[in-house]
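Thread: quick sanity check before group meeting

JM: Hey all, I'm pulling together slides for Thursday and realized we never actually wrote out the predicted structure for the chain we discussed last week. Dropping the sequence here so it's in one place. If anyone has concerns about the input, flag it before I start.
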Amino acid sequence: MIDSHCHPDDNAFDVDRDAMMERAQAAGITTILAIDPSPEFLDQYSCLLGSVGVHPHQAAETTPDTIPHLRQRAQHPKVVAIGEIGLDYHYDFAPRDVQRRVFIDHLRLAAELSLPIIIHTREAWDDTFAVLEEHWQGTGIMHCFSGGPKEAERSVAMGFYLAFGGVITFPKALEVQEAARWAPADRILLETDAPYLAPVPMRGKRNEPALMVHTAARLAELRGVSVTEIERQTTANFHQLFSAALADGLH
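JM (edit): ok, ran it. Output follows.
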């Protein structure tokens, strides 16, 4: 399996990072897409790919040097995406107009570098779609997909893959579960967002890639297929999305 969204460099793993990575391997996780790691961290573990980008929570902290710095970091041979980027209107840690401006700047960078994007959107679907429709023509991932069938259908129509994490195991996440049932087989991915959003039965505890087996099992149940089929399909989808980078021999 492939964890398409993880934060393995998070401080939550400082006490047992190597053991966490070993547990991931033992659980069948072959590749982890690390979100905005340092180049040094990306080089530490052979199973890692990476992305670069400024989370919407930190949009107000950007400077004129931010995009040039990201452009330079994106030259690392294991960087395969720009993200996570987007809009978060739940916390509004950055002003919404600033979030949109920084989002657009990242989209232009991704287009320049011909890289997919990783979208974070929370309580901002309409504005997220509006920005993408005006400024993006490529592909990418709707990370931690939290919408329903309507948002799923619109995302897929725009060329995006839907990454399902621990949320689909939550009993009250009915809209997300319905979207998981509907999603085309060739557009589904698995993720953890570790150390956040641990799946049931570990909800409320620190998440890690090894726990993705619970998410895979729930996704298989929702779609009426075997876990083996979910593993096969989501791995194939990840390779399709990142075919250009993977063709360079990274994995």
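AS: nice. The radius of gyration is 17 Å. The chain has one domain: 2-246.
JM: adding both to the slides.
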